[in-house]
Structures are given as C-alpha cells and as structure tokens.
Amino acid sequence: MASSVQITLRRKPNKNGQYPLAIRITKNRRSTYKLIGHYIDIEDWDNNNKLVRESHPNSEKLNQLISSKIHDANKRLITLQTKNDDLTATFIKKEIYKSKKKLSFFELAQEHLEELEIYNKHNRLSSDTAYVNYIQRFNKSKELSFDEIDERFLRKLKIYLIKEHSLCLTSIMNVFVFIRLLFNKAIKDKIAKQKQYPFGGNKIKIKFPETEKIGLNADEIIRIETLTNLSHSEIHARNIWLYSFNFAGIRVSDALRTKWSDIKDDRLYYRMGKNCKILSLKLSDKVKNILDYYIKDKRHVDDFIFPELKKANLKDSKDVFNKIKTANKKFNYYLKSIAEKANINKKLTMHIARHSFGNVAGDTIHPLMLQKLYRHSDLKTTINYQANFIHKPADEALESVIRKVG
C-alpha cells in the first residue's frame, strides 16, 4: 500500500498561459492534487528534477517553498500512517490540508509575509511587517487568536498607536486595513467565523482622512528648471524629478529602471512595476536634454540610463528594492535644498512630481486621457485624484457671490 508525496506541474494553464504547481498525493496508484498557489511558465519547469529552473526570476525562493511544502506534507503523512495505513489518497489530502482551526493571528500573518517575499512585493512586505510589529508590541505576546480581536481590542490598539508611537490617523487606518485583510483570509480558510468580524456595520469603520495634495505650479517648475547654483548631486536629483514630471509623474522606481533600450523612435516604452502595465510615451525636448546629460556614461544599449541600479544584483529583487529606496531618500534630501534655493515654500519630494503634473494639468485634459497618463486601472481613481487640483469652478462660484456683495 505504497503512498507518496511529490511536487508536480499541472497541465491546465490559467488565463495567462501559466501552469500551477501542485502537491501530488499518491496511494495505491491513485493520485489527488493540492495546488500551492503559484503559477509558472512551462519552460521554467524541470520535470526530471522536480524543480523550478533558474530561468524563473524567483526560482530559489519557489524551490525553497516547494521543499518546505513537501517536508510538511511528508511529516503529516507519516503521522497518519502510524495511526492507520489503510487510507485513500483523497482522505490523506483532506487530513493533511484540513483547516487549522487554532491558527493564531500572528501565524497567519507570518504566512502572509512569506507570500509577499515569494512574490518580491518588498514595499508591501516592509509596511506589513511594521504593522505586525506594532500589533505584537501592543499585545505583548505572540499568542493572539482571532476571537480576541474585537471592537474593544481595536479601540485600545488605536489609543496605543497614538500615545506610544504618535501615529497619524492615516497610518492607524493602514494598520486596521491589514488586520481586516488577515481577518478576511481567516474567515475564508475557516479559521475565524463571520460573526467574529469586528469591521463594518455598527462595528469598527475604517475611514481614511482626506489627504492634502499640493503640487508645484508652472512658474515654480520653471524656477527649478532654470536654477544654476546647484551641486552635482542636486543637478542629478533635479533631473530625476523633472524626468518624472515630464512623464506624467512616473514613479521613481520605474524611472530608475529605465534602460536606453526602452527608448525607441523618440518614445519611452516601459512596464510599470506596480501593476505591470505597459505604456508608451513620447519624449519631449526637455526629456531629451536630460538624457543628453547621461549619454556619456552609456556603454551598452541595455545599460540603465541613471546610475543607481548599475551595480545592483538584478537577480536579487530585495537588493534592487533597497537601492531604489536609498536613492529616493537621497533625492528627497537634495530636493529640499533645491526648493530653498528656488524660494519654493511647498514640500518638494519625488512623489510631488506626480502631484505637480496633476496641478498643472488641472481641468485642461480629458479624464480618459489623464487615466492613461496616470496609468490608473479605474477612471474613478483618476477623477478622484484630479479633483484635488481642479479649483476653477469653486473659485468662480465663490467670486460670483463676493461680487454681489461688492
């Protein structure tokens, strides 16, 4: 009555043409499968060695995950066999993967963080790890069940985050969103019950305060462009900022990933790191002038335009993430001094390039075109975002009332 546990690649692709990795449980030549939640291209699978090939960007981490899954399944299989070896493959699968009723909040949180690391979502991993740490410090223990996370727990957590960590309401709401995410996962996996859910209705409401979005105006941008008393580091920071602005607020992570090979026929072709959307934008004369500043350092068509990632280990997504994070911090430091030299009293950071584009655009560009330029998936997102920079109707309405009094 031989039984075995093995990793395999199922041959039914998803809508993206990728194939699911699955644990195959076999007993008496009958098999059943448990998907592990990851899909890969068929050419990235080594069927002989039952491994993800190095051609896959996350091969090392996926193979570590597979090894862990196989180890856990075999361990559970041995436990089952010591009690009763007369079991079917379906029953073994059910027993190995049955819902862990006593899984704690922090155990589920750890699974979530490991998944983010597997998918190289380092920005989310960094923020969500911080949220877990806040909750753990408040709880003063790694033991926390979902039925303990009620309205009273969340209200006390909110007070703690304000008092002990001076978090603003937006940051606190982000912590609550994270807790809600894990609660929804727990309910789906039958770890928690719907009646325990502490959010919505007459319970805890997650409501973000309105954020103030202030961008530079056209005159302020010209003042930055025409500054002459700048250091080499300040010039570089200004170039990156203007590069972002002239491409409708392209994110710094995407700007630094730009290669000379991404420029064809006076257009930039790039894939957004945030949602993998592909976009093509025309190079303006101002962007061409910025590129001319760096052309002397071009050695190959696949070189990065900007220097920050030239020494990065491109096979290590964490190293790339850290270098971008460090660069962004450096740019913001020099942008602060640039703002002072340009007599600009507004906050100037890399992200303000996006706000500045919205401010200058105002209501002169159709929302559908702005949606394309901003790379928003939903038009509502564009309309809500741009509403921060459209003041003319309100200004005219206010003025019309004041004129009647005057």
CATH superfamily of the largest domain: Intergrase catalytic core
Given as residue ranges, the uncertain stretches (5+ residues, pLDDT < 50) are none
What is the CATH fold-level name of the largest domain?
hpI Integrase, Chain A
DSSP, total strands: 8
Return the domain count. 3
Helix tally?
15
Secondary-structure element pattern, one letter each: EEEEEHHHHHHHHHEEEHHHHHH
Give the end-to-end Cα distance, rounded to a whole number of Å: 96 Å
CATH architecture of the largest domain: Orthogonal Bundle
Largest sheet: 3 strands, antiparallel
Quaternary organisation of the protein chains:
single chain
Derived structural class = mainly alpha
Overall morphology: globular
Relative helix content: 40-55%
Strand content: 5-15%
Protein name: Site-specific integrase
InterPro entries: Arm-DNA-bind_5, DNA_brk_join_enz, Integrase-like_cat_sf, Integrase_catalytic, Integrase_recombinase_N, SAM-like_dom, Tyrosine_recombinase_XerCD
GO molecular function: DNA binding
Keywords: DNA recombination, DNA-binding
